[in-house]
Description:
By secondary structure, the protein is of the alpha/beta class. The protein has two domains: 58-140 and 282-335, Periplasmic binding protein-like II (D-Maltodextrin-Binding Protein, domain 2, 3-Layer(aba) Sandwich); 141-280, D-Maltodextrin-Binding Protein, domain 2 (3-Layer(aba) Sandwich). It is built from twelve helices and twelve strands. Strands 1, 2, 3, 4, 6, 7, 8, 9 and 12 form a nine-stranded mixed sheet that branches. The chain has a three-stranded mixed sheet with strand order 5-10-11. The N and C termini lie far apart (83 Å). Part of the ABC transporter complex PstSACB involved in phosphate import. It is a lipid-anchor.
Amino acid sequence: MNLKRYVVFLVMAALMVLVTACGGGSDEPTAAEGTDTEEAPVENTEADANEEATSLDGSVVVDGSGTVYPLMSLVAEEYMFTEQENVSVEVSRAGTSAGFGRFLVDNGTDFNNASREIKEEEQAEADEIGIEVKEMKVALDGLTFVINKENDWATELTEEELISIFHSEGGVTKWSDIRPDFPDEEIHPMGPNENHGTYEFFYENVLDKADLVDGVNLQQEYSTLVNLVSEDVNAIAFFGFGYYVNNQEKLTAVSVDFGNGPVEPSLDTIGEDAEYATFTRPVFTYLNVDMAKEKPQVLDFALYVAKNVNDFAGEAGFAPLPDTEVQEYIDFLEGLK
């Protein structure tokens, strides 16, 4: 009898060991099970976010400054390629003033690029038709004077000499009027026309609103100016540094003496506190805030511009903005969500 009870005890003990080893009867999750339970919502959240990010579609319309065009085109191309393939960003270059004409109307463009600040009358027009406008700097540009590659005498000029070439009362028509040892040849001054913010910056800030010299050749297309200067040894033109960077094989940039020796425009010298500061200017894009609130793709592209434009600035021939200034734009745009 005792032996039989002993055998039963051994069988029961063996069954208990087997059940424990298999984890049977326990409601507590294993460590692995617990980890899976906690991570699942995170994975779903990320998936939802990705799905939301890829769900944007529609169009974004940008017009305005030809100077800002190369930079904004780069940003738009990367945005469509890497961020939102179903969003079409159209970037045009009617010029700053002409662009504001398309921006400050009902159902106008979403952004207007500008190589100058918005004018008082343009802001008044926006207020009158009820458009909220947000100014965003996108980079720093250096106003650059370019000459023909064969021009080996005017590679370094003072600020005053440059102004005298374009000023209606500068008293200069030939190179020899600037310095006696320069050629006795007529100067052919050129630049962008009145549609461009670069013209207005030059007229207002460099010439102090004086008339330009008679006979100055003003063009709508920067590519035309590049070709004209590259084919005329007596030509000199002004435009943004980016256009010079993209045509260095055809043109020479004039180093400017602001009083402390010649300074060549470059990404190292262009800046509001740098050696080329006198001819440095911010360039902008103006956002229709109402469009950003109404169309998610417009706000998403605006945020992409603010967060990434400094990465593209150098490639397009612009100096970047300070990080603190960029963060202010990001904070504003995040507040529109």
